[in-house]
Amino acid sequence: MTQTVAESREAQRAIPPEIIVVAGCLIALITFGPRAAAGLFQIPMTETFGWGRDVFSLAIAVQNLLWGLGQPFAGAIADKFGAVRVICIGALLYAAGLVVMAYATSAGLLNLGAGIMIGFGLSGCSFNLVLGAFGKLLPERWRPLAFGAGTAAGSFGQFLFPPIGNALIQSFGFEMALLVFAASVLLVLPLSLALATRGAAATTAVNAGPSQSIAQALAEAFRHPSYVFLVLGFFTCGFQLAFVTAHMPAYLKDTGLPVWVGGWTLAVIGLANAVGSLYSGFLSSRMSKRWLLSFIYLGRSVAIAAFILLPATPVTAIAFGITIGLLWLSTVPPTSALVMLMFGTRYMAMLYGFAFFSHQVGGFLGVWLGGILYESMGSYTFVWWLSVALGIASAIINLPIKERPVERPVPQPA
């Protein structure tokens, strides 16, 4: 009788799916925005403090790596105790990191704020945690579109924040821009409360399937070739995205284009990505996910090759932003859907977190190599062509993936 009453109260407290999706999308928008605008701070900070681009690149590379490193642990904690506590702690650490970055006068402080604090903060409050919460809290029919919406919302943050950041930097300096970004991240705290309540359908979905420990779930995943292929392919996504985010404004400035072109190129990437992510979420439930991923990676390689072969103008930069934006985070809905299809929702946040770690290792190398090779070669050409090659490799790697649940032994009656 007590259990029935508890279940009834839980059902009454259940938050409508629409509210969950809206709150999750706002969290994704707010947390992705400052991170997507990081490249805007490279030139003013390096010129102010006399750093090479390798110094700034290392801090952002560390951020990407620690974001990925912390993601599986944040996902595992969220899987066990719920997402709200993890998101709140992550948002507080993220905001504090932006404040430290604003007052960083040395490479060490820059690495602490922009690298370590923001990196671990993102692992706890970014759209990855939101997607994991969607997988648990939403009815099954809501999930494919919600995955696309959550990813698109992060992309819309990329559309909003770079122009705002550019205007703030030009009017008030990079320090004030970072402080405004820090204040905006604190809005995540009240929004996260919408991800606290589980409806009856979600609770059933979480508890369905075999009883596994975290170690058993990880062993099962990494013995599964399709999961390994998915994780390896996601490396390229991180390499390409992080390199473009961190170095595109500087690259365009090197070609003689005005500063506004870099800011608006990042912005249109975000706007186009909102469309691409939604459409990718739509397609993920209607076509082969492995083929969709292969087409996305191949399309990126074609877009990058065309961009670096054409003369750099505002038109080609914005056109590239739109094209690459349509393919930007469109990998996320099919990737997260494949993880859920193969292993279910029980440990989705953790298993997607390990895939995302591969993504962020790629991001670390993309940002870091961009800075190191620029300082040694005087250009970004080699890294651009490396991005093309990696895109082709990932298009091939995703093809052998088997789109079906992992085979588990059926318990035999005693």
Automatic annotation (TrEMBL):
<dbReference type="GO" id="GO:0022857">
    <property type="term" value="F:transmembrane transporter activity"/>
</dbReference>
<feature type="transmembrane region" description="Helical">
    <location>
        <begin position="20"/>
        <end position="43"/>
    </location>
</feature>
<keyword id="KW-0812">Transmembrane</keyword>
<dbReference type="InterPro" id="IPR036259">
    <property type="entry name" value="MFS_trans_sf"/>
</dbReference>
<feature type="transmembrane region" description="Helical">
    <location>
        <begin position="86"/>
        <end position="106"/>
    </location>
</feature>
<feature type="transmembrane region" description="Helical">
    <location>
        <begin position="227"/>
        <end position="251"/>
    </location>
</feature>
<feature type="transmembrane region" description="Helical">
    <location>
        <begin position="176"/>
        <end position="196"/>
    </location>
</feature>
<feature type="transmembrane region" description="Helical">
    <location>
        <begin position="145"/>
        <end position="164"/>
    </location>
</feature>
<keyword id="KW-0472">Membrane</keyword>
<feature type="transmembrane region" description="Helical">
    <location>
        <begin position="318"/>
        <end position="343"/>
    </location>
</feature>
<protein>
    <submittedName>
        <fullName>MFS family permease</fullName>
    </submittedName>
</protein>
<feature type="transmembrane region" description="Helical">
    <location>
        <begin position="382"/>
        <end position="401"/>
    </location>
</feature>
<feature type="transmembrane region" description="Helical">
    <location>
        <begin position="257"/>
        <end position="279"/>
    </location>
</feature>
<feature type="transmembrane region" description="Helical">
    <location>
        <begin position="55"/>
        <end position="74"/>
    </location>
</feature>
<dbReference type="Pfam" id="PF07690">
    <property type="entry name" value="MFS_1"/>
</dbReference>
<dbReference type="InterPro" id="IPR050327">
    <property type="entry name" value="Proton-linked_MCT"/>
</dbReference>
<dbReference type="InterPro" id="IPR020846">
    <property type="entry name" value="MFS_dom"/>
</dbReference>
<keyword id="KW-1133">Transmembrane helix</keyword>
<feature type="domain" description="Major facilitator superfamily (MFS) profile">
    <location>
        <begin position="19"/>
        <end position="406"/>
    </location>
</feature>
<dbReference type="InterPro" id="IPR011701">
    <property type="entry name" value="MFS"/>
</dbReference>
<feature type="transmembrane region" description="Helical">
    <location>
        <begin position="112"/>
        <end position="133"/>
    </location>
</feature>
<feature type="transmembrane region" description="Helical">
    <location>
        <begin position="291"/>
        <end position="312"/>
    </location>
</feature>
<feature type="transmembrane region" description="Helical">
    <location>
        <begin position="350"/>
        <end position="370"/>
    </location>
</feature>
